[in-house]
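Hey, sorry to bother you again with one of my protein questions. I've been staring at a protein lately and its backbone has me curious. I owe you a coffee for this, so here goes:
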Amino acid sequence: MGGIGPAMAWTPGDMARASLRALRRLLLPLAVLLAAAAGATASVDIRVSNVRNDKGHVLAAVCTKSQFLSAHCAYVGSAPARSGEVTVRISGIVPGTYAVQVFHDENDNKEIDRNFVGIPTEGMGFSNDARFHFGPPSFGDAAVSIGPGGGVIAVRMRYF
């Protein structure tokens, strides 16, 4: 006597309910993890030192590798310039590896002004105090890790 007896037979409805239960067991933990990840953002205070005057604003950007050195970074902020030190707070940052770039927009035109040979006439700076050496620093030189707790990133403004 082989086969499945009447007590062991599954109807299509039984199979659908069992599949639904299995799917719920898989999707519920995944949904919880995704919701937690979506809510895990950080705030970072970018402390910019060596600001030479109180003209304009200090603009800061927290950039992914593909956005680094562009005008379009994922997270941006600004604060009125003050001679000495300025803090720019940027919130809502998803934890990860980024580079911070700042510039002192003394005339508030939202552009890095340059002289006739292309050298910036307004101050600039990068995380890790990454410096210009015949061109801008690499992402790797300026890369910082931002965790869920956020933190403070120091950047020294440099004028050429």
